[in-house]
From TrEMBL:
GO terms for cellular component: plasma membrane. It comes from freshwater metagenome. This is Rieske iron-sulfur protein. It is a multi-pass membrane protein. It is found in: Cell membrane. Pfam families: QcrA_N, Rieske.
Amino acid sequence: MNELEHPTGDPYGAKDGKDLVSGISVFPMEPHVPRKADIDPKAARRAERQVATMFGLSSLLIIAFVVAFVKIPNTTLITIPIIGVVNANHVAIGFTFGLSILLIGIGAIHWAKKLMPDEEVVQARHALTSPDEERKEVESSFKRGAAESGFKERKIIRRSLLGALALFPVPLVVLLRDLGPLPGTRLRETIWEEGIHLVTDATYRKIKASDIPLGGLINAVPENLLEIEHEEENLNQRGKASIIVVRMDPADIVSQQGQDWDYQGVLAFSKICTHLGCPTSLYQQRTHHLLCPCHQSTFDLSDSGYVVFGPAARRMPQLAITVDAEGYLVAQSGFNQPVGPSFWERG
């Protein structure tokens, strides 16, 4: 018995015109009706041009996407009936990219329906294992299908499709711009500078050493934060420049990150945990330890802010402070190391 034959004698695994497993009728097959493009070369060329036009328009829309993304300000608003007021930049890039994808899909479907072979083929059932002869037959069928698709012969379709697909990833690359500008030194630097007053957070009142009792803690920010009117930039700078100011007996200070960075036992440290950036202000007067509430990283503020417990990888940055002529606390300079999470640190 031939290996492609079924015990019933039906080479397609069917009996009386029905599939043996599902019982669904498989015979007789509908006679194949040639399409107009199969018998009329002009119709075939017309369909080929239609497909190539859609692929070509897809390429042009990708270029339009890039132009719209760059040229249309993201603050420009337009009014669309029914929808209302929308961002013109978003509408333009969404329309061009979406229509570009749609045209590639429609072009591929039109190509398959009009130009690729549509004759149904019945494949004989066979064992799950594939002999070498069948593998060669499959390979031959694949090559024949590739040849019949016209991909090699129909150069205008092949070139226009390759052009559309080549440009397709461009919007994905361009959209990376929306991730924001490169950070540069923005993650390293704060707005602290020499002579900037320490002011209380929220109330923005200048601080004197006498305002802080022994063992006390004050949350503070730089006074020049008030000069930043743009809300987003203000929040960004606040997130980096916020500090805590503590006072301890000068005799309890074991070490500092710089010489004479305190004023009569008053020290200032970044408020941002060096583990994952959580705000810290849980201070224990007796041990001089600062605890981060998120993951329990603990820093000894009497000993240069070193980590004594928890997952933080480096000490809490210290801000050098002194006082002005009126006795108000001011910064001696900015931080001399990156503030915030350790993965921002370089080198």
